[in-house]
Structure formats: structure tokens, C-alpha cells
Design goal:
This protein has helices at about 10-15, 75-80, 105-110, 130-140, 145-155, 175-185, 205-220, 230-235, 255-260, 265-275, 280, 310-320, 350-360; strands at about 30-40, 45-60, 65, 90-95, 95-100, 115-120, 190-195, 225-230, 240-245, 250-255, 295-300, 325-330, 335-345, 365-370. It is an alpha/beta fold and about 375 residues long. It has 2 domains: about 10-260, Rossmann fold, CATH 3.40.50.300; about 275-370, ACT domain (Alpha-Beta Plaits, 2-Layer Sandwich). The strands form 3 sheets. It has a 6-stranded mixed sheet, with helices on both faces. The protein has a 4-stranded antiparallel sheet with strand order 2-1-4-5, covered by helices on one side. Strands 12-13-11-14 form a 4-stranded antiparallel sheet. Helix 4 (about 130-140) packs across helix 5 (about 145-155) and helix 12 (about 310-320) packs antiparallel against helix 13 (about 350-360). The chain is globular, with a radius of gyration of 23 Å. The termini are far apart. The protein binds adenosine-5'-triphosphate. Adenosine-5'-triphosphate binds near residues 40, 72, 73, 74 and 76.
């Protein structure tokens, strides 16, 4: 199905100009400039720094994922974008407008240009799918005839053309999120914020919702900023990623680059949790080796190294000691990407031979830890 912008009726090819131009072109859709957010600090309560000097941009047309563990500051970051929170210091700028400086009326206008989807969908149970999607338009004072003309195509767009009269209790989780997406698009936003939108869904439904968001981004040119604790979500959908840890962005860049060569421990830990390692292996990983332990290493194949028979050569180099534990080829940011998780003796002499081999061949690797 081709997507036609529901409200404007403008053909996607026209609206999609400027899609995914990346961080290199023009004004960003969102910029955080030295943003700090503190909570508390009054009435004798100690202040808590939730965000600590965030500098970060979201390019027009990009799908940017902010990933971090619980409590890292993701929700606070997103609430600064739609003006639900104000920074303690620094600036949040959305498409050229500083959010913190807006009066209440300006904030209302801004929020109309920002759609939002939530983990628990936030639908009104007393309203049908149609009426849930219509709600932001009613609030904006749009007349009933225009609402009718807009809501139908939006429900078609999310694949729920036949569910207009259904109540949330009659819909599955994935269908409820589709209603949430249609509602978020009702006011023709230029930015879509997604707050853990797939966290309550099973893996298959998650994939179908992510595919829908990807299609909306590609065909409507809508910028997407999503927060998640799942690397799988970032890998599947995002063009760019920022890793947040205790209020700091510790690493950011194109998803492919960050995934191929993570620089920060938090990124590595998040990546390791997305590898398809058996449970017994994942839970047994240690940070430092004891005598007799094995090193657990992820080999990464892309670009040049993807076409060379390096695994066989590694086995030849280290002898028959190499165990292959997990692996596969996937597509990240539109490029093929292979990962293989292997283990071999953590004896210094073996590690040295392996490292020499990696240096000679240019094979990218990441030590995930050590296992008994
Ligand atoms: N209104 C508030 N008052 C005091 N502390 C707050 C407030 N909002 C958030 N915090 C604290 O700021 C930190 C970051 O919270 P935030 O909700 O942004 O994290 P998160 O990464 O979204 O986590 P989660 O995924 O668990 O929602 C947490 O320690 C939280 O307790």
C-alpha cells in the first residue's frame, strides 16, 4: 500500500524530499544544547541530576534511537522535547524554535506538530478506534466533515480500515498501538516521539509495528525520535543512535558504526544483551578471567572482511580450541552485517595469537567477557 499523507493529501514523493539526509545537512529537527535537568533540591531535599549536559542533534528525516537502561534519563529527555519539562540549564530547540522560551499558546502549537506514541497506548477505552484518532482533531477545533475525511485514511494507513467502530477492549496490543500511531499522525506532525512503543508487545507484533514506523518515515518523511531499552529495536529501525547512561550521552553515531564498533561499556553491555546467546552462557559471563576460563569474543564481519574466509583461518591459527556459539547475518542501516560469537582459551599466549591475527586481517572484534 502506498502512503498518502492523510491530512495534506500531498503525494509522498513530494513530502519525502529531504528524507534521511543525515546529520550533515541543514538545521536539525531537534537539538539539545548543554541540557541539564535537575529534580528536587527544594525543602531540604537533595537535588537529583537526571540529565547532565546533553549535546545532541536529531536530523530531519532520521529515525533516531535513544537507548539506555531504566532510570538513565530517556523519558526526561523526551519530555523536554514536547515541553512537558523545562531544562534547568541549556536549550532544547525543535525545528528552529527554543521550547523553553515558548508561552503556553506556543507550547500548544508545538505539541500539535509533535505526535507521540506510548508503551501502554494511552487510548480512551470509552471511544472507538475512529474516535480515538479523531480526538486531537476535535481538541484542535477541526470540523466534523474534515475529521471524517482525515480519520478514515489514517486508519487505512495503519491497516485498521475495518476496525473504525471497534473499542480498545476489542483490539489486540498491536492493533491498539496502530490506533495510537494513527492518532499521533492526525495533526500532521513533523516529529514523532515514541516512548517504548513496542515494549509491551510480543516479538512478532514488535516487528510489524517497527516496519510500519519505518514505512511512515520513508514515505512521509516524518522524523522519528524513539526511546527504548532494547538494542533490537534500534537495530531494526533506527538510522542513528545515542546511548544514554546516568544522564550522559556516552556514545552516538550511525547505528551501523556504533553496532560494528561500540566504544563505551554501556553500549557493549546493551549489545551483548541483544545477541542470541543461550541463557546459560549469557548469565555466566564474567568481566575478568580466572585460571582455565575461556574468552568470549564477538567477531564482526562487514565491508572487506565480509568476503574473506577469516573464521577458518582463525581456527587454523588457534588450533581446534575455537568453539562457535552463535552467529548470523542481518541488515543494519541497509547494509549486510555478520556477527559470530566464539570462545577460546583465555591463556595469555592464545589471546596474543588471536589479537595478532585480528590486527593482520583487520577483523573487528569485541571481547564480551569470560566464561568457565
Ligand atoms: N519528576 C521527577 N522528580 C524526581 N526525580 C525524577 C523525576 N522524573 C524523573 N526523575 C528521576 O530521573 C531519573 C531519570 O528518569 P527517566 O524517567 O528519565 O529515566 P528513563 O531512562 O526513562 O527510565 P525508565 O525506562 O525506567 O522510564 C530517574 O532516577 C528518575 O527517578
Amino acid at each position: 500500500m502506498t502512503i498518502q499523507h492523510a491530512a495534506t493529501g500531498v503525494a509522498p514523493s513530494v513530502r519525502a524530499e529531504g528524507i534521511n539526509q543525515g546529520a550533515s545537512s541543514g538545521t536539525p529537527m531537534v537539538s539539545f544544547e548543554g541540557v541539564t535537568k535537575r529534580f528536587g533540591g527544594t525543602g531540604g531535599q537533595p537535588a537529583f541530576t537526571a540529565l547532565d549536559g546533553i549535546d545532541f542533534t536529531v536530523a530531519h528525516g532520521a529515525i533516531t534511537g535513544i537507548i539506555g537502561r531504566s532510570g538513565a534519563g530517556k523519558s526526561t529527555l523526551i519530555r523536554l522535547v514536547n515541553g512537558l519539562e523545562k531544562p534547568t540549564s541549556g536549550k532544547v530547540i525543535v525545528d528552529g524554535t527554543e521550547v523553553g522560551g515558548l508561552p503556553e499558546s506556543g507550547l500548544r502549537d508545538l505539541r500539535r506538530q509533535i505526535g507521540m506514541i506510548f508503551q501502554h497506548f494511552n487510548l480512551l477505552s470509552s471511544r472507538t478506534a475512529f474516535d480515538n484518532v479523531a480526538l486531537p482533531l476535535e481538541i484542535a477545533g477541526v470540523d466534523a466533515k474534515t475529521i471524517k475525511a482525515k480519520v478514515g485514511p489514517l486508519l487505512d494507513l495503519v491497516g485498521l480500515g475495518d476496525k473504525a467502530g471497534s473499542y480498545p477492549s476489542e483490539l489486540s496490543g498491536g492493533q491498539k498501538q496502530r490506533v495510537g500511531i494513527a492518532r499521533a499522525l492526525a495533526t500532521d506532525p513533523k516529529l514523532l516521539l515514541s516512548d517504548e512503543a513496542t515494549s509491551a508487545l510480543d516479538p512478532e507484533t514488535t516487528q510489524s509495528i517497527l516496519e510500519l514506523l519505518k514505512r511512515i518515515n520513508a514515505e512521509l518523511g516524518l522524523t522519528v525520535l524513539l526511546i527504548t531499552h532494547e538494542m533490537e529495536v534500534v537495530k531494526t529501525i533506527a538510522t542513528d543512535v545515542a546511548v544514554i547512561d546516568r544522564g550522559l550521552i556516552v556514545e552516538s553515531g550511525r547505528v551501523f558504526d556504533v553496532y560494528a564498533s561500540p566504544k563505551h561499556d554501556t553500549t557493549r553491555t546493551l549489545l551483548a544483551s541483544s545477541l542470541a546467546l543461550p541463557e546459560w552462557l549469557r548469565t555466566g559471563i564474567k568481566h575478568s578471567p580466572s585460571a582455565g576460563d575461556r574468552a568470549l569474543v564477538r567477531l564482526v564481519f562487514f565491508g572487506e572482511t565480509a568476503f574473506q574466509p577469516l573464521t577458518g583461518r582463525l581456527v587454523a591459527e588457534l588450533g581446534s580450541d575455537v568453539n562457535i556459539l552463535a552467529g548470523g547475518i542481518e541488515e543494519i542501516g541497509g547494509k549486510p552485517f555478520g556477527s559470530l560469537v566464539v570462545s577460546y582459551s583465555a591463556e595469555p599466549a592464545v589471546i596474543e595469537r588471536a589479537n595478532r591475527f585480528y590486527a593482520e586481517t583487520g577483523l573487528s572484534t569485541e571481547v564480551l567477557g569470560y566464561v568457565a
